[in-house]
Amino acid sequence: MKIIDVKDYQEMSKKAAEYIIEKVRHSKNLNLGLATGGTPVGTYTNLIEDHKQNHTSYQGVKTFNLDEYVGLSGDNHNSYRFYMNDQLFNHIDIEKSNTHIPRGDAKDMQKECEDYENLLAEHGGIDLQILGIGSNGHIGFNEPGTSFDSNTHIVDLAPSTREANARYFDSLEEVPTRAVTMGIATIMKSKEILLLISGENKKEALSNLLHGEVDERFPASVLRNHPCVTIIADEAAIADEKVRS
Ligand code: GLP
After folding, report:
1. Does the annotation mark 85 as catalytic?
2. 138, 142, 165, 235: which is the annotated catalytic residue?
3. What is the residue with the minimal CA distance to atom 10 of ligand 1?
4. Is 121 within the bounds of a domain?
5. Which ligand 1 atom is at minimum distance from the Cα of 165?
6. Which CATH number covers residue 169?
7. In this structure, what are the phi and psi dihedrals at residue 40, rounded to the nearest 5 degrees?
8. Ligand 1 pocket mutation pick from 43, 84, 165 by most atoms within 8 angstroms of CB
């Protein structure tokens, strides 16, 4: 794993955007895996700025998001479809039909999982997957204990994850209890992974990732087995690492 350490959230967002823009410009048909949460918001803002100023085009890009809440439709403000449209897709020249997010309101969620996995395979998989990390080591919505062999599936969200995400909802009760997420095996099939880590509350997660065992109890640890992972981490998240060295 390659680590790029940066000063703060702003610098992480700028570096991550530059990394993505480089790929968008140099590959004709890029399959880009996207994440939600607070971490990539600044990255998406930088992509939009660049699109406006430098006219980087997303017409050859297809996107595949990691996850979605079960029970929320795309027009619900808390759905990840709404988030993606609002934070990125509505502001760049990507065809909406080329943006893919599992549906949280499908009638048959099991079938939705299988369809999403097939969709990824039909498109030849993800070239570059952007990831954030939960403080308990979750990636996508793969909570501790998820099998490293898992494909796209339905998960029960950990109480800590629901609490962490309650900030976007009116109350904790409104946070869905289940989600659909790419599995660990799905994520690991990506040709390249860019993991963004910012803030003091992610310090322990970063330390576990770098020094802990590769173990299903800490889902992100699987990334140590991936041949092409780049981490961009800011000083607040990386502080303990500096003390170590
Ligand atoms: C969320 C998302 C993840 C995200 C993580 C961290 O629940 N499902 O994809 O990476 O938790 O979120 P944040 O960036 O807000 O800290």
Report:
1. no
2. 138
3. 132
4. yes
5. 7
6. 3.40.50.1360
7. -85, 0
8. 165
31, 98, 136, 142: the catalytic one is 136
**Residue 124 belongs to some domain of the structure:** yes
Straight-line distance from the first to the last Cα atom of the chain, in angstroms, rounded to the nearest whole number: 17
Is residue 162 in a domain? yes
Task: For residue 197, report the distance from its CA to the centre of ligand 1, in Å.
Answer: 10
Say how many Å lie between the CA of residue 66 and the centre of ligand 1. Answer: 10
Query: Per the residue annotation, which of 31, 46, 67, 100 is the catalytic one?
Result: 67
pTM: 0.96
The DSSP symbol for 35 reads: -
Per-residue pLDDT of the chain (245 residues; tens, 9 = 90+): 999 999 999 999 999 999 999 999 999 899 999 999 999 999 999 999 999 999 999 999 999 999 999 999 999 999 999 999 999 999 999 999 999 999 999 999 999 999 999 999 999 999 999 999 999 999 999 999 999 999 999 999 999 999 999 999 999 999 999 999 999 999 999 999 999 999 999 999 999 999 999 999 999 999 999 999 999 999 999 987 765 55
Domain range for 206: 2-178+190-233
Q: How far does residue 85's CA lie from ligand 1's centre (Å)?
A: 17
Count structural domains, the chain: 1
Active site residue 67: yes
Alpha-carbon span 31 to 53, nearest angstrom: 23
Whether 142 is in a domain gets the answer yes
Q: Is 122 marked active-site?
A: no
The first and second tokens of residue 34, run together, are 């996207």
136 is catalytic: yes
Beta pairing, strands 178-181 & 153-156? antiparallel
In the sheet that holds 178-181, the strands lie side by side as: 67-69, 178-181, 153-156
With contact defined as beta carbons under 8 Å apart, do 123 and 31 qualify? Answer: yes
